[in-house]
Specification:
Distance between the termini: 63 Å
Order of helices and strands: HHHHHHH
């Protein structure tokens, strides 16, 4: 949870709650502080007015109608908060996608490294390696593949 956010996490507005939860996820999982000026501007597509409003709303615990008593300004703020919630969600999706892609690359590198190591092993050591490190499900799958190959040979 981002300690800089002063607003109650059980706030009334749907979009405010979305922004708070996304900000907490960004802070916890990706070490991105949404209340940082540059980060917030990047998340909101360089919209300084929206960034100032979001920062002000998150840094206070006052009711929005008290912060913006003019009904036109209040409606404008609600619209800005809705757009901001969407933009912050997009930022979070982008970061999650980048993280997933990075993990897939690492996983593929690890798999190719294991494959290269296994290519060098003899059948005896390969069988021991499979028994030691493979799960039961993988071993059953390998058994089925081997059985099919034996049937094709016959």
């Amino acid at each position: 949870m981002n300690p800089a956010i002063k607003r109650n996490r059980k706030s009334q507005g749907n979009n405010i709650v979305k922004i708070i939860t996304k900000a907490d996820v960004l802070y916890d999982d990706f070490n991105v502080d949404l209340l940082d000026d540059n980060t917030l501007l990047d998340a909101l597509n360089k919209d300084r007015k929206a960034a100032n409003i979001v920062k002000h709303v998150l840094s206070t615990n006052d009711v929005l109608t008290h912060l913006y008593p003019n009904s036109l300004k209040y409606q404008e703020v609600l619209k800005i908060l809705k757009e901001a919630a969407y933009d912050i969600s997009c930022l979070l999706k982008k970061l999650k996608r980048e993280h997933t892609n990075k993990n897939k690359e690492v996983s593929e590198e690890y798999q190719t490294e294991i494959l290269e190591n296994l290519m060098v092993l003899s059948k005896k050591y390969l069988i021991r390696y499979i028994i030691k490190y493979a799960s039961q499900k993988q071993i059953k799958k390998l058994e089925r593949v081997a059985e099919r190959k034996r049937e094709r040979i016959k």
